[in-house]
Input
Amino acid sequence: MVPVLLILMGTSATLQADLFSDKKFLLLPPINFTIKATGLAQVLLHWEPNPDQEQRNVDIQYHVKIHAPEEDEYNTRKTESKYVIPLHEGFAASVRTILRSSRSPLASIWVSAELKPPPGSSGTSVRNLSCTTNTVMSSHTHLRPYQVSLRCTWLVGKGAPEDTQYFLYYRFGVWTEECQEYSRDVLNRNTACWFPRTFINSKGFDQLAVHINGSSKHAAIKPFDQLFTPHTIDQVNPPMNVTVEIEENSLYIQWEKPVSAFPVHCFNYELKIYNTKNGYFQVENLTTTKFISKIDDVSTYSIQVRAAVSSSCRMSGSWGEWSQPIYVGKEKKPLAEWCLIVLPTTICFVLLVFSLICRLCHLWTRLFPPVPAPKSNIKDLLVVTEYEKTASNETKIEVVSYVEEAGSEVMENSMF
Output
């Protein structure tokens, strides 16, 4: 078998050498090269072989070069090619005929085509477009138990008039949808979009294309395109049903995989155990859903878990959100600290109880009777003697008044 292959390879090399030595053989460029937009951020490049191309049992292919908006190049044996790229700045490419052998310097001249950028005033397109996806449980069908939501936000263009209104579309694969739920700014302009359910497949490898155009009475609004790779914008849910148990000095932690279309073996986990007493963090990277840790009995601990899809199931993305913290353990204070807190409290409590008992039983008055105050001259017995003499009859009248302290009783005696 090996000798036969060597003979074939030698024959092919000889034919190509003979072909290249013949200066009359030429590679002709393809014809009817066109570029057509077939979807959001997607173009179709199409051309036809040159009918005048001489056939000498050679393997012809095509070299495609992308000029704008980004440079790229590749080879293909087909006469058409799909290319995904933002189109708001236009698109330009060239193609030529080459031989399949990479060692061959023989190639045709280039033929080029261009797709003009869409019209619009400078500075009117959106800025800082950002999108995130999240997997949610689906209650609509058992065939697709999970759905992917999409949320995008952006800023209004600096040169956009105040009456500008923006409209968002996304494309994933062959599916294209227009946004129906917008959030608006103080001027009632759309600045965010929400898709509760989409056709996006979080396990897929297609790029997500987002297109935003706009309208205004005062200017032509320039559209804007942006591509997103699903694994870079997917916001992984926190692990579910995190439980923590303490047995003696051991902490037993377990959880379930997040809400996701990926199976359980597709996740990596990060566990964070925080000692609230000394501020110490213990962080563990795990591929299982269980963990056991040694703890002391004088501290309180906070436990959280987060997840990320592993590279064995798709390209690795960022970590998801942390689960809600779970607090376990009971912080015990040292004996001296307890004495400083408990002793003064106990003394105050005993004094308060004793005071209440004394007031209720009138013991205070009995134990400490009040000291009598000295009598006032005003409160002494007042004796007033008045003598009244009349000119007609020399009658002697004596008036005696008594003022007593108790009861403020006044007695008057008149003697005639």
Notes: Confidence is low (pLDDT under 50) at residues 1-22, 378-416.
